[in-house]
């Protein structure tokens, strides 16, 4: 059985940083065979002896255009269809934005397990600021720094417990 985890969220929250960190352990970015997945990156990694696929979304989403929110919504919907679990990444340095709320609305309706990840928790102040994300109402909420790796182990333990 193959298990797929998709990373979604608005631009600049650190999705690709987290994806690259996961892939460092076992570099295997899957080539785009079909040519239609330029806005997503597929990889394979493992944690605690469990192998799973990871999708990094939003590579071609750019800030400041009207298509912006539409494009993110599209990415989230594809992720909900393709993935077995979803990592919803947000940014503790910025706080909750309208786009985070829009993504949260879509994910609340998903029947797949969602892990809300508050990223850029590089220090205790960021953690205190990041607790506002509990208000989005996701049962599984994790605080991580994709840059240092802090907190990512606990998150991956929880995600791979589903496999
Ligand atoms: P994406 O658009 O969601 O894929 O975000 P990126 O992975 O491209 O990261 C956006 C910016 O946030 C980059 O400058 C990263 O170096 C930075 N970043 C990512 N994770 C962290 C983190 O844990 N802490 C800090 N301070 N910066 C981070
Ligand atoms: Mg990215």
Automatic annotation (TrEMBL):
Family: Belongs to the TRAFAC class TrmE-Era-EngA-EngB-Septin-like GTPase superfamily. EngA (Der) GTPase family.
Annotated binding of GTP 1, by residue: 9-16, 56-60, 119-122
Protein purpose: GTPase that plays an essential role in the late steps of ribosome biogenesis.
Subunit structure: Associates with the 50S ribosomal subunit.
Origin species: Danxiaibacter flavus
Name of protein: GTPase Der
Domain EngA-type G: 3-163
């Amino acid at each position: 059985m193959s298990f797929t985890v998709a990373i979604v969220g608005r631009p600049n929250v650190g999705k690709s940083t987290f994806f690259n960190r996961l892939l460092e352990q076992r570099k295997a970015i899957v080539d785009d065979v079909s040519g239609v997945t330029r806005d997503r990156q597929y990889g394979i990694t493992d944690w605690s002896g469990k192998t799973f696929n990871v999708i990094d979304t939003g590579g071609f989403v750019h800030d400041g255009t009207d298509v912006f929110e539409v494009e993110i919504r599209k990415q989230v919907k594809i992720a909900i269809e393709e993935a077995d679990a979803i990592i919803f990444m947000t940014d503790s340095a910025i706080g909750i934005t309208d786009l985070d709320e829009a993504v949260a609305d879509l994910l609340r309706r998903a029947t797949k397990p969602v892990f809300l990840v508050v990223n850029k928790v590089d220090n205790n102040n960021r953690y205190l600021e990041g607790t506002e994300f509990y208000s989005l109402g996701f049962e599984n909420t994790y605080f991580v720094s994709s840059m240092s790796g802090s907190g990512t182990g606990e998150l991956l333990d929880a995600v791979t417990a589903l496999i």
